[in-house]
Design a protein that fits this description.
Layout lengths: L1 H12 L14 H8 L3 H6 L5 H13 L3 H15 L7 H10 L17
Helix pairs in contact: 1-5, 1-6, 2-4, 2-5
Family: Belongs to the plant LTP family.
Organism: Forsythia ovata
Keywords: Lipid-binding, Signal, Transport
């Protein structure tokens, strides 16, 4: 179950996959801050709050290059491992429920490092 949430969070981080602008890598603090409002939705399901969706959109827009996306991926994997009650279905639906297109499937078998 955690793997699905990790994958969702990684997928959200990959939204800007095809944009490549130079910047410093995003920090884990920035990533976690942007998705922190989603914890209730990720653990209970239902409808994500507007602050959650705003964070997902903000995270998506802040990932400017591959370095950012990989850093965000690692941060999200680490963050998701600290929560045992995250729902994989809620995780897989978060981008679409927030109106964000990520362009990659949310799956435990996808290698997001490529």
């Amino acid at each position: 179950m955690k793997r699905f949430v990790v994958i969702l969070l990684v997928a959200v981080a990959m939204v800007q996959l095809f944009m490549a602008k130079p910047s410093d890598a995003i920090s884990c603090g920035q990533v976690e801050s942007q998705i922190s409002q989603c914890l209730t939705y990720l653990s209970q399901g239902g409808t994500p709050s507007q602050p959650c969706c705003n964070g997902v959109k903000s995270l998506s827009q802040s990932l400017q290059n591959t370095q950012d996306r990989q850093a965000a991926c690692n941060c999200l994997k680490s963050a998701a491992s600290r929560y045992s009650n995250l729902k994989p279905d809620a995780a897989s639906q978060l981008p679409s429920k927030c109106g964000v297109t990520i362009g990659v499937p949310i799956s435990a078998i996808v290698d997001y490092s490529k």
